[in-house]
Specification:
Largest sheet: 5 strands, parallel
Structural class: alpha/beta
CATH topology: Rossmann fold
Helix content: 40-55%
Distance between the termini: 27 Å
Strand content: 15-25%
Number of domains: 1
Oligomer: single chain
Length: about 150
């Protein structure tokens, strides 16, 4: 799976062992963005919150879906415009797969058509990439609380 980096592997620890020792209040999150600086910046920023646990990152929607199947996070934070199937189709496939993971769309585009397309695909939330870190945390926690 090129482009998929489980966070436990990066830290030199087994990701499953890391999950076993995670606080029950931490909500597992997978990040998908094709831009390395955005992906790693989000991983670092979300790592500052005790309420969230980044269990992996992916550089494409296809890799994100595989990682979601492996890690079963509460939330997938996904860019919408990526090479391959893209985030909107990735969200659609996530929802039709029956996974309990909730998707939050992340993009620099905030036009109505993009927002509607993401929500129609099954996203439970939408964030602009210039959102405040605490707003991102709040959105991810709210998404994690959406019933399956």
């Amino acid at each position: 799976m090129r482009g998929v980096i489980p966070s436990g592997d990066v830290a030199g620890r087994d990701s499953k062992a890391r999950m076993a020792f995670s606080s029950s209040s931490e909500r597992p999150v997978v990040i998908a963005d094709d831009q390395t600086v955005v992906r790693e910046g989000l991983r670092s920023m979300l790592g500052l919150f005790d309420s969230l646990d980044v269990v992996g990152v992916a550089s494409s929607a296809e890799d994100a879906l595989a990682l979601v199947a492996e890690q079963t996070p509460d939330v997938l934070l996904t860019d919408l415009r990526m090479p391959g199937i893209g985030g909107i189709e990735g969200i659609r496939r996530l929802v039709t797969s029956g996974a309990a993971t909730r998707a939050v769309a992340l993009t620099t585009y905030d036009d109505d058509a993009t927002i509607v397309a993401a929500l129609d695909a099954g996203a439970v939330g939408f964030l602009n990439k210039d959102a405040d870190p605490t707003a991102i945390e709040s959105a991810l926690l709210s998404a994690a609380a959406v019933p399956s």
